[in-house]
């Protein structure tokens, strides 16, 4: 640790004044930004959390009011039904029970009650004579128990002596084929005079009614709502959490009138708040995504961030200003020397005295003069070396091709095909006449294509019909000049490394076109192709090490050396589907030869 400390001290001591001041200022700036960011984040998080709690409580109070209003309205309408004299008489006197007139009257009253509240799905009245009256939006349901007094909740209703209770799925006493949740308002009907029980009223509320209490509330923020009964069973929800998960959520909270806690849902933080409906022992839980609320504060955060950035910019400007006041002469000299970075070795023209800056300027000018002389010598040597490399590669390619051609002609001689051997010799002579080109390295595209045709003729004489050749030549390109012997090695590569290894009849396509100042040559085959690994090696400049592609390697090297560029070729290949090699040779009108 002590060595590292001494090393840092040594490095800092050797820095110039401007660098030292910049490091100190930046250290304080970074420390200030870190502290400001931490404080801002914590404050922003706390504000978002508080806003979420306030919004949760407001939403829960609104939902609580809506539920109370819905149940109070249902209770009020039920009292109107219970106090109706016709209903009192029908339920009191046995001779009126279950008559057609009684059924009609009671049904009309119950239909009126259902029409007054769309969230009421059914209403049933049971008298003490085992008669049932009802109205249902779907169909009247029959009891699956012998008597309504045998219902598991009947004693709870009876204890209230006329006041209502609410129970989840109390209509399970009926033969129901649906799993839809129902909240039932149940109350004993007492005689208005004797105050003795004469029947029971059941009003069944649909889950849609409870959803309507919070649908408008939860449209914003992606809020999640769940309403649980006294036994923590789900009455209504728009959430996808299970009943057991809500129980765990409640267990993690301290039971009081309202409580909030953070709970992750689908890897997103939610603030879940709880409120009790004391009247029924129910619980309401609301979950608000913190990300939504944090997004709303983005404008405030953006403004704060801009203020921090502005302060940072102003501080940086101050750093530069103070540093320049101290190191202005050195900066002027460095500005004059800046051209070196772009490769311009120019002497510094700057008025200086006989001080340290003047001595530094004079020493720099002497260095620039020596560097320019050295670069000139290196450029000359490199040109000579590259020319020699080009000639060596050209001489390597000639015997390489001659070896393959003589091999093919030897096969014809052994096979006794004298006529074809003669044709091969004619083609070989034509090939070398064009290759020699009076010693010139540059030939026309037309001559280059003739060389390719002669070579293909030789190969077809040897291999018969194992491949076919297709040409797509732009006539306009024929009179342009190019380095000679660049297409034949590519065709050779297609035959020996593409068509032959595949063992099937293949196609070779040769095209030559003018495109945007380039002569674009393409040699494409449908042979073996290359794997992705082999292709990646070729395209990562590993071509020089590929001993299996001497002709291809030599051609690419010659083109790169002659045109002094690296981006003149593209190799594309798919295993067992073929290979496509494209050469892009820069040309101009000066390269076009007259007919």
Automatic annotation (TrEMBL):
EC numbers for this chain: 2.7.13.3
SUPFAM superfamilies, per database record: ATPase domain of HSP90 chaperone/DNA topoisomerase II/histidine kinase (SSF55874), HAMP domain-like (SSF158472)
Name of the featured protein: Histidine kinase,HAMP domain-containing protein
Keyword entries, A-Z: Cell membrane, Kinase, Membrane, Phosphoprotein, Transferase, Transmembrane, Transmembrane helix
Top-level enzyme category: transferase
Keyword Transferase: yes
Main localization of the protein described in the UniProt heading: membrane
Organism: Ruminiclostridium cellobioparum subsp. termitidis CT1112
Entry-linked InterPro entries: Bact_2-comp_sensor_kinase, dCache_1, HAMP_dom, HATPase_C_sf, HATPase_dom, Sig_transdc_His_kin_internal
Any one Gene Ontology molecular-function term assigned to this protein's record: phosphorelay sensor kinase activity
Pfam families: dCache_1 (PF02743), HAMP (PF00672), HATPase_c (PF02518), His_kinase (PF06580)
High-level lineage: Bacteria, Bacillati, Bacillota, Clostridia, Eubacteriales
One Gene Ontology CC term in the entry: plasma membrane
Locations listed in the record: Cell membrane
Segments forming domain HAMP: 324-376
Bilayer topology annotation: Multi-pass membrane protein
Segments crossing the lipid bilayer: 21-43, 302-327
